[in-house]
Amino acid sequence: MSRAVRVRGDELETERGARAKKRSLAVDRSTSSRSPGDLAVRSSHSHPEILFAIFEPDEAQSGATQGRVCDVAESATEESSDPPSSPIYEPYIPDELAADPVVRSAFKHAMAKYEAEEDRLADLFTMDHYWHQPSSCLHTDSRFLPIRELARDAVLLAAKSVILLSSFLENQLLNKCCGLWFQRDGQRKTALVLTSAHLIRKDDIHKWKRQWTGEYHKNAKVIVHLLDNKTTQGQLIYLQEHYEFAIYEVQVDKPVHLPTFNDGVHSGQDVFRLGRDADLDIKITHGNLAYDIPSRYERCHYMYFLRDASSLKLLHDDGGPIIDLEGKVVGLVNNQINETFVPSSILHKCFDFWRRFNCMPRLHLGMTFSPIKFLDPICIERMTRKHKIDSGLIVEQVSKESHAEKIGIRKGDVIESFNGKHISTTIELESMLIDLCWDHFDQRKKLNAEKDVSVKIFDATKLCPRTRNLTAIVSDCGEDIVKGAYPIMGEEAMSVL
């Protein structure tokens, strides 16, 4: 059952007919022409002026017609009393006057004036598509004809929430990342931005692939580039190192567009990755969702964006959204090198936790895993035939001196269940680890405490099952997996020589 706050549209007074009002408008989803991405819910845990992005859990996808609340901006257009500009006509010389030198001189002057006017028109914002060559795959690629209209509307809807952020150390640029609006406080005139923690991470981005956790410049100056070309400074509110995202608060005078997040995704579906360049132009890359086995230094909760092989890699930053064909956010890009992202189902649980307990914890198990489900069917069939193992998580790494190591869990073992619950993917595991933290905090326990988890293990060496109690740590820090190593000294060193 989702813990996301829901507000029915019929419980709110519908505002009608006033452009000057900036407040909320209750919308019936079944009859409204407004897209779901324009809608948000009020938070019941805070001031009634606070609006929060909508999360749609997987189980809510089957025809739900729940009311929504949207943040409506004032849109007053002043009509100009100036007369319209004169039409522009191209001059020409009638045939019978072609030899007249006076006419030819007048024509030359008129043509110069005409060309100057044409150049002026070419600079209009509505005409720049003639000289600005679009890089979007949706413009020219015929492969997208079946979904072009859906994708266009989805991109334009989601783009309203996508902004650019820059970080600086002593006025030297540190990094750039995209971000998403996800909460608005109308009374305080502030909004919260969700972005990648890589915005303020130390070290070169190419080193990140070989590290579990890094260090962060929490005091870095962060500039938020608003879509009206104005800028404002962001204040760091929360940094989640394990899931690698950050939340910044900014002052905003106008309402912002809050996206809709979709928890329900499936492997292979069409998605688009969005970002912004230095000119704030939206960048679009098509791909497909995929579950996969994480590499050694990738988090268990990662999902993967499989970019079209023929597509150029147009985006070189993190923090942008992955959206579906309805313009709903299905994940947040956290590593543009490997094109991995944090799925919305994890973000959903994190934000619910943060709104209630002001933190985003998970259990640290001291292990990494590979899901049997994602192996080659030949390997799965062999395991099933020889050992009757067809699901579970293969232990890939055990952190040195962790409790998992102390109770005898080794690389290659299979974890069949946690607390009696069978887990088939690392995404499911991550979700379960957060849920266990709910129970922990409901019992009024705190961060950095221990929690016991019953694990059923299939020992791959002795070929037998066993059940053990694993003591895990409740933490909102990044989990480091320490590789087992020891120094060669004294007589051991001599024996090697």
UniProtKB/TrEMBL annotation:
<protein>
    <recommendedName>
        <fullName>PDZ domain-containing protein</fullName>
    </recommendedName>
</protein>
<dbReference type="Pfam" id="PF17820">
    <property type="entry name" value="PDZ_6"/>
</dbReference>
<feature type="region of interest" description="Disordered">
    <location>
        <begin position="1"/>
        <end position="44"/>
    </location>
</feature>
<dbReference type="GO" id="GO:0004252">
    <property type="term" value="F:serine-type endopeptidase activity"/>
</dbReference>
<feature type="compositionally biased region" description="Basic and acidic residues">
    <location>
        <begin position="7"/>
        <end position="18"/>
    </location>
</feature>
<dbReference type="InterPro" id="IPR009003">
    <property type="entry name" value="Peptidase_S1_PA"/>
</dbReference>
<dbReference type="Pfam" id="PF13365">
    <property type="entry name" value="Trypsin_2"/>
</dbReference>
<dbReference type="InterPro" id="IPR041489">
    <property type="entry name" value="PDZ_6"/>
</dbReference>
<feature type="domain" description="PDZ">
    <location>
        <begin position="394"/>
        <end position="433"/>
    </location>
</feature>
<comment type="similarity">
    <text>Belongs to the peptidase S1C family.</text>
</comment>
<dbReference type="InterPro" id="IPR001940">
    <property type="entry name" value="Peptidase_S1C"/>
</dbReference>
<dbReference type="InterPro" id="IPR036034">
    <property type="entry name" value="PDZ_sf"/>
</dbReference>
<dbReference type="GO" id="GO:0006508">
    <property type="term" value="P:proteolysis"/>
</dbReference>
<feature type="region of interest" description="Disordered">
    <location>
        <begin position="62"/>
        <end position="90"/>
    </location>
</feature>
